[in-house]
Amino acid sequence: MAAMQMDPELARRLFFEGATVVILNMPKGTEFGIDYNSWEVGPKFRGVKMIPPGIHFLHYSSVDKANPREVGPRMGFFLNLQQRGLKVLRWDAAREEIDLSPAPEAEVEAMRANLQELDQFLGPYPYATLKKWISLTNFISEATVERLQPESRQICAFSEVLPVLSMKHTKDRVGQNLPRCGTECKSYQEGLARLPEMKPRAGTEIRFSELPTQMFPAGATPAEITRHSMDLSYALETVLSKQFPCSPQDVLGELQFAFVCFLLGNVYEAFEHWKRLLNLLCRSEEAMMKHHTLYVNLISILYHQLGEIPADFFVDIVSQDNFLTSTLQVFFSSARKSPARSCKDEARIPSFTSNQVPSVPERLFPISQAPCGFPVSLVMVLTQLNSTRALGRDLPQQQSTSFQKRSC
Predict the structure, then answer these.
(1) pLDDT digits over 373-393, tens only?
(2) Which pLDDT value is given to residue 171?
(3) What integer best gives the mean pLDDT of the chain?
(4) 3-state class (DSSP) for residue 81
(5) Can you name the residues that pair with 75 across neighbouring β-strands?
(6) Would residue 153 be called left, alpha or beta, if left means φ above 0 and alpha means ψ between -120 and 50 degrees?
(7) Residue 374 to residues 132, 278, 301, 332: CA-CA distances in angstroms?
(8) Residues in domain AAR2 C-terminal (predicted)?
(9) Angle at Cα 128 formed by Cα 122 and Cα 134, nearest 5°?
(10) Could you read off the pLDDT of 330-386 as tens digits, one per residue?
């Protein structure tokens, strides 16, 4: 980990006031990161110091001892660190992962007493990216992490899967309409159809909220079905009442949690959940009127998230599904119909100076088209989107490697 230039007095204060994560026995060459930064571990690495209190995402990828260039799938976990807190973890060589079991209290206290001697083996937290990390996670609470993280607490780029049936007997294959072993496939589609039904190993999958597949109430008339299919407010209200009865704002924490898991954890399933949840939020016009504060915060979240979507990954979206553009167009159209609110609400929308916004021709989105009630932020969101799309057009049309599914 590269040294960070910092005033000695400030560094001393942060060392004693910040949290520390000690990781013992992590092999040299392992890719390790915290929040928005990652490094290749050296022989002296023992952890990270001067970590600001709050929610953090630690992630890592093991390397092949025989071939250090071969890197395993990314794994990670969330920690809620307290001021002056000390977390002691160790590397499990057999499983090639960090053991999240709590260390004995006596060991933790002994480590705390010798923390200054351990200082030379600890890398400083990179404060240069702290503001960006906070902007991506400001709605993720400890309760959000506890509710969504896998029971194992380890978040893997591709969850370990097991067959639903053992397939030891012919009757098991017949039960899934699979041909006998050894039968030659006649097509690629047939080969895919022959794959056995799989399920994630218990305790390894992220526990995202269940989103409805039916967007209208039971017994709805054809006219009501059409209305609820165009405006998803009924489905959104169902999710909010069942999953977030006390605080609808917590749905934003789940949106951010999913985004971090796919952006930093490379979890493709998290990306799919982020898309579905964002689609539900953006296509709920009536809910936008009812939950005005929630949507003001959503606009701020979208601004920061759109700036972090990798340009090469966005090429895949543009060339295949164009999900983001169509979803946000519906959102902007609905927002224009939202009545202007008080200056107090307006002040909660982040303001941006001209040098913070990528320049795009005004013909792409004239300022005069900004929806009433959300003028500045919606311009910023679409400007960010146009900028990302422009980056994507300059890239070669190749498959993204940022979010590949890989086995643990």
Answers:
(1) 443 445 455 555 555 444 444
(2) 58
(3) 78
(4) strand
(5) 60, 156
(6) left
(7) 23, 18, 14, 10
(8) 208-338
(9) 100
(10) 888 887 766 645 445 544 444 433 333 333 223 223 333 333 444 344 545 555 555
Q: Which residues contact 58 (CB under 8 A, 6 or more apart)?
A: 21, 32, 33, 34, 76, 77, 78, 79, 98
The values of phi and psi at residue 112, to 5°, are -65, -40
Chain segment 48-63, per-residue pLDDT in tens: 999 999 999 999 999 8
DSSP states of 102-157 as a string?
PPPHHHHHHHHHTHHHHGGGEEEP-GGGHHHHHHHHTT--HHHHHHHS-TT--EES
- Phi/psi region, residue 238 (left: phi>0; alpha: psi -120 to 50; beta: rest), is alpha
Any idea which residue has 């991506």 for tokens?
136
Q: Determine the Cα–Cα distance for residues 217 and 219; give it in Å rounded to an integer.
A: 6
What does the pLDDT read at residue 383? Answer: 53
Q: What are phi and psi of 399, to 5 degrees?
A: -70, 135
Kindly give the residue spans of alpha helices, DSSP state H, lying in 283-372: 285-290, 292-306, 311-320, 323-336, 343-347
pLDDT tens for residues 231-243?
999 999 999 999 9
Q: DSSP string covering 247-264, please? A: -TTHHHHHHHHHHHHHHT
At residue 394 the predicted structure's pLDDT band, cuts being 50, 70 and 90, is very low
Torsion sign (Cα): 266, 272, 275, 278: negative
Which residues, in sequence order, are CB contacts of 85 under 8 Å at separation 6+?
19, 20, 53
Q: Which of 313, 230, 229, 228 is nearest to 274 (CA)?
A: 313
Q: What's the CA gap between 400 and 321, in Å, rounded?
A: 14
pLDDT of residue 219: 87
Q: How many CB atoms lie within 10 A of CB 264?
A: 24
Determine which helix (DSSP H) or strand (DSSP E) holds 80, and give its type and residue range. strand 75-81
- Amino acid present at 116: Q
| DSSP one-letter string for 52-79 | PSEEEEEEEE-B-SS-TT-B---EEEEE
216 or 68, which is more confident?
216
| Interacting residues of 34 by C-beta distance below 8 A, sequence separation 6+ | 21, 48, 51, 56, 57, 58, 59, 125, 126
Q: How far apart are CA 249 and CA 293, in angstroms?
A: 8
